UniProtKB/TrEMBL annotation, chain B:
InterPro entries given in the database record: PFOR_II, Pyruvate:ferred/Flavod_OxRd, Pyrv_Fd/Flavodoxin_OxRdtase_N, THDP-binding, Transketo_C/PFOR_II
Pfam families on file: PFOR_II (PF17147), POR_N (PF01855)
Tree of life domain: Bacteria
Organism: Halarcobacter ebronensis
Residue ranges of domain Pyruvate:ferredoxin oxidoreductase core in the record: 269-371
Name of the protein in its database record: 2-ketoisovalerate ferredoxin oxidoreductase
Length: 138, 408
């Protein structure tokens, strides 16, 4: 696709409400290629910023994380970035701020916490709570 | 093809449902997903029997509703297969949401719609309510007037819908019970001839092509929803010459002629009836009897309800003085849809006949030759006076006082 889809006339569109994820035929093994190494088409949702919904964002504390992959598994937007079973961070272009990742994080204290969207991540990391004792309220 | 050939006689006695099932079998459909509903049940029931007896090598999916049936068809078509199903009435109503998906995704599925009334009150008999319901769903709609035509048109549906410049789903309509359950002589094609006529299925943008992954039925909002709908409209309108071409090809193969607009004695007709379905054949008998009395009567019927052959229809009506548009569906607070279409086709043409709208035959009520002759007689009065001599709309054959809300 040479033209941006927003400039295309009706007679230039691909028939059917279909979108191609990749520009050309895929000649590599998709499952073994990391997302950042794939050749996405303009129409791929990977290229769309959809973080505007967020009011609170998850901040990740790598010191506490045990790489259990719970957050990666449960995130409904695949906005947790994980490589070789190691937690890498949050994809803020696609995270909607739902807080599910925080909810499922098993460490004590949690390795992911929700902060106000306008809070800087390095400031957020200084405000991490202490380890909770048994029976203490969450 | 990994299936048993079926020996067919040159003439078979089939009802309309058998015709559909045989056409599915001969088209070697990959997936039929079906939920039975009267009067189309026998289409899928017959097909299931063919499947059980080894005459079919595709998949037959039994689903829990018509919504699921059409959804399974859409899924299978998007994955890259030739698909078909059948339905009627309430089942069709349940499918409607997915009908729009199918057309918007440009998947050439085939749906045999055996026309039946819509509840309430519940009624299993024929009228065109379900056909009208699917009017704007973006499907091509062919209409057969008897069993032979149901067979021919269902076969042609595959070829039309799958044509590379069409890529749209097709509904093959027939009248509930009158066609679907009446055994008539039908001349089928041998399996190989039928299959070769339709051709192999060529899939486009198949979802299961891992070298070029594609997302079907995406969200577009205002960004380009409008452009997609424009493209769909252009494909529908552009289908008319392709349908004509395929009709010609079919005539070469079988000798059976189909036209975008079917006519009976229209060349010099002064009064005419325009209708859909089996009423066409009854009206031709009425016209023939009136011709013997010197009345220039004719019958005309669009072979396609969508895309509607506006120009072709208007051309054939330029010499007609009075015309009755017969709508076999409850009008729902306005004139019938066919009347609207025909009026729309004629309004900007030089010669316009006087138009009447007759709502008739709802829920399977009969329309007889004598009644049609009476309608022709009314038209003669209109023609003689050069204007309407009665009301614009009449509910023909309803019990009680005459009913029409529309007169000038
Ligand atoms: S907040 Fe929700 S969307 Fe964002 S990373 Fe966590 S689970 Fe995913
Ligand atoms: S759920 Fe918590 S501990 Fe597990 S990988 Fe995610 S951040 Fe780390």
């Amino acid at each position: 696709m040479s033209k941006s889809i927003k400039e295309m006339g009706w007679d230039e569109l691909v028939p059917g409400a279909a979108l191609f994820s990749f520009n050309a035929n895929v000649d590599y093994l998709m499952a073994e290629t990391q997302p950042e190494d794939r050749i996405y088409a303009e129409t791929n949702s990977k290229n769309a910023y959809v973080g505007d919904w967020r009011v609170f964002k998850p901040v990740w504390n790598s010191e506490l994380c045990i790489d259990c992959q719970n957050c990666w598994l449960f995130c409904p937007d695949t906005a947790i970035i994980s490589r070789n079973k190691e937690m890498v961070g949050v994809d803020y272009d696609h995270c909607k701020g739902c807080g599910i990742c925080v909810e499922v994080c098993p460490t004590n204290p949690k390795s992911l916490l929700m902060f106000n969207e306008i809070e800087k991540n390095e400031d957020a990391l200084t405000k991490w709570p202490e380890k909770k004792k048994k029976g203490e309220e969450e | 093809m990994n299936r048993k050939e079926m020996e067919l006689n040159s003439v078979e006695v089939w009802d309309g449902n058998t015709c559909n099932a045989q056409a599915f079998r001969q088209a070697s459909v990959d997936v039929v997903a079906a939920y039975p509903i009267t009067p189309s049940t026998n289409t899928v029931e017959n097909y299931a029997t063919f499947h059980a007896n080894g005459y079919v090598d595709g998949e037959f999916i039994m689903v829990e509703s018509e919504h699921a049936a059409m959804s399974a068809c859409v899924g299978a078509a998007a994955a890259g297969g030739r698909v078909a199903t059948a339905t009627s009435s309430q089942g069709c109503a349940l499918m409607v949401e997915v009908l729009y998906q199918c057309a918007g995704m440009r998947l050439p599925a085939v749906l045999c719609l055996v026309n039946r009334a819509l509840a309430a009150p519940l009624n299993v008999n024929g009228d065109h309510s379900d056909m009208y319901l699917t009017r704007d769903a973006g499907w091509i709609q062919l209409d057969s007037f008897n069993a032979q035509e149901a067979y021919d048109l269902t076969l042609m549906s595959f070829k039309i819908g799958e044509h590379k410049d069409v890529r749209l789903p097709v509904i093959s309509n027939q009248d509930g019970f009158l066609t679907s359950h009446t055994a008539q002589t039908v001349r089928p094609l041998p399996d190989k001839v039928a299959y070769d006529f339709i051709g192999d299925y060529v899939q486009v943008n198949a979802m299961l092509d891992f070298s070029k992954p594609v997302t079907h039925g995406v969200q577009t909002e205002h960004d380009w929803h409008f452009e997609h709908k424009a493209k769909q409209h252009a494909a529908l309108q552009g289908a008319l010459p392709i349908v004509e071409e395929i009709f010609k090809e079919f005539k070469k193969l079988t000798g059976r002629e189909y036209n975008l607009v079917e006519t009976h004695k229209m060349d010099d007709a002064e009064v005419a009836i325009v209708c859909l379905g089996t009423t066409y054949e009854t009206a031709t008998i009425a016209a023939d009897e009136l011709r013997e009395q010197g009345i220039k009567a004719g019958v005309i019927a669009p072979r396609l309800f969508r895309p509607f052959p506006l120009v072709q229809l208007a051309q054939k009506l330029q010499n007609v003085k009075a015309l009755a548009c017969m709508d076999r569906s409850a009008p729902g607070g306005t004139v019938g849809a066919l009347y609207n279409e025909v009026a729309g086709a004629l309004f900007n043409t030089p010669a316009r006949p006087v138009l009447r709208n007759l709502i008739y035959g709802l829920g399977g009520r009969d329309i007889t030759v004598n009644e049609l002759k009476e309608i022709f007689t009314d038209l003669q009065n209109d023609a003689k006076n050069g204007k309407l001599t009665g009301k614009i709309q009449r509910l023909h054959g309803v019990r009680g006082p005459e009913l029409s809300f529309y007169e000038l």
